[in-house]
Write a structure and sequence with these properties.
Elements (H helix, E strand, L loop, with lengths): L2 H12 L6 E6 L3 E6 L2 E2 L9 E6 L4 E11 L5 E5 L3 E4 L8 E6 L6 H7 L4 E5 L5 E6 L22 H4 L8 E2 L1 H16 L2 H15 L1
Parallel strand pairs: 1-8
Antiparallel strand pairs: 1-4, 2-3, 2-5, 5-6, 5-7, 8-9, 9-10, 10-11
Length: about 200
């Protein structure tokens, strides 16, 4: 059984809903721009925020975005290209957090950091699940022309961080996936059939 299918099966079989919620918190230096290729709008002035996502695997696209006030009262806003973090299987009802890894301590360091930020995803026990390094040639423009409609036509190229290094998944994430595979293996024939029927419906 493919790992992705097994994980999805476990979430489907062992939660009250196929789309149960998880919570992901982010600090003010990280701006979520899209979740699973759907634009997320947020205000400029913000502190730590919490987002509700579906349980399971998610693609969270973010930017490093930090405001610096200088001694002469001038200021700079440093902004990175898009970094897309593909999460491991997120478990229903759990809370996770995104954080900067090797975060810059001053403006000079931040100028270099914005070219290739490193984003980490942690679970409620503060265990690192995955880290994603941004690409130096990441797409700088996320959305082009403003379209006054509820749905915006966004191409795959516009929604994907280009040429970013492969994500690094930790042992904690691998263990979670192994547990999900075990749940699939322990599922009854009826439970497996129920899931396969549901999966076939989603493909239509």
């Amino acid at each position: 059984m493919d790992l992705g299918i097994a994980a999805t099966a476990a979430v489907f079989l062992f939660s009250t809903s196929a789309f149960s919620a998880v919570t992901v918190t982010v600090p003010e230096e990280i701006k979520i721009v899209a979740i699973n290729d759907q634009e997320v709008k947020s205000g400029f002035l913000r502190s730590n925020q919490a987002y509700t996502l579906n349980a399971g695997v998610n693609a969270i696209s973010v930017r490093y975005n930090e405001f610096f006030q200088h001694s002469d009262n001038s200021h700079d806003i440093l902004k990175s290209g898009v970094v897309t973090v593909k999460t491991p299987e997120l478990i229903e009802g759990e809370t996770y957090r995104l954080a900067l890894m090797s975060a810059p301590k001053d403006f000079d360091a931040a100028q270099k950091y914005k070219d290739q930020p490193i984003i980490g995803l942690y679970d409620a026990k503060n265990q690192l699940l995955v880290q994603q390094t941004g690409a130096k040639d990441a797409v700088k423009t996320w959305f082009g022309n403003h379209v006054l409609t509820k749905k915006v036509d966004m191409t795959t190229q516009a929604m994907t961080a280009v040429n970013q290094p492969a994500a690094v998944y930790t042992q904690s994430a691998e263990l979670n996936n192994q547990q999900l595979i075990q749940l699939w293996q322990k599922a009854s024939k009826a439970e497996r059939q129920k899931f396969m029927t549901w999966l076939a419906e989603q493909a239509n």
